[in-house]
Amino acid sequence: MEFNNQAHQENSRRRFAAFAWFVTALTLAVILWGAFVRASKSGDGCGAHWPLCNGSVVPDPQSAKTLVEFAHRATSGVAFLLVVGLCLWAFRAFRRGHAVRWAASASVLFIVTESLIGAGLVLLRLVGGDASVARAAYLSVHLVNTFLLVAALALTAWWAARGVAERPRLSEFLKGRVGLALAGSLALGVSGAVAALGATLFSEGAGPSVNVEGMSAAARLLFSLRNYKLHPLLAVLVGGYLVYFAFKTLKSDGDVWVRRWARSVLALVGVQFAVGLVNAALLAPVWLQIVHLLLADLLWLSLVLLSAASLARRAVSPAHVVAREAGAPLAFAEDGEVPVVR
Predict the structure, then answer these.
(1) Which domain holds residue 39?
(2) Higher pLDDT residue, 38 or 19?
(3) Model's pTM, two decimal places?
């Protein structure tokens, strides 16, 4: 009877983890579509209306911009409901204080703030051809919140899949090599978002035909960022540190999943750097901007999961590590405080 109950709990946990990975993937797709909305200047496709589109629940498709923006809002709404459903499931399936509950709750928090930031962009008219410092600042906050959202979703799926009950303390993610790697990646992402905005507002092919003198100070700033000077410099510095961080983790930790995530970080840094060079050479076509953002998201997720896996290993005593590597499953006591070998 006890065996059947444990098997049922294991199957339930696996189903939850599969659903969490699905929600993470769908959210990434919505994020990429949002980038297309920005790159195609379709953010004003629903006018200055939110949550309605041009004053209607289902708008009349007056233009391609309206269809693009409405599709983004509709898929964002689906993602919102799925994240809320994921959190409710987490509270039903996992005990109080469980790592999965914490990550799922954080996912709801960040998708709420994601929706509010998106609403602010529309209501404040920081869309379309707007070239203001406020829009650049808003997009920077948007990028950070987006990264935190997908990180929380990925941790929900990862901790459920691996049966991790105790999460590393938040302070552990913010200090040492881990904190520097995560902070550097966020800074790189923000610089990329602002550079992409400059490329959208001022086509690379425009060249000397752009009247720089007639621009506002904010527009001139964004126009200068179109040349990708700050972003590639940060890419070299942060990318180099991520390579160092991944290699250092590989050498100091023999856990199979830590090594896999470290190798993923190394591979994605190399691919992302190559795509960035091609992106600049081809004058940032929209499709390549989307690919560049996808790789940035995957690199961020690999880094977050590498950090979580390596921090979790530090919290387990050497005796438990030896037992786990010998094939004994590692679980946690009912109170979630003391790791035990079963």
Answers:
(1) 1-167
(2) 19
(3) 0.85
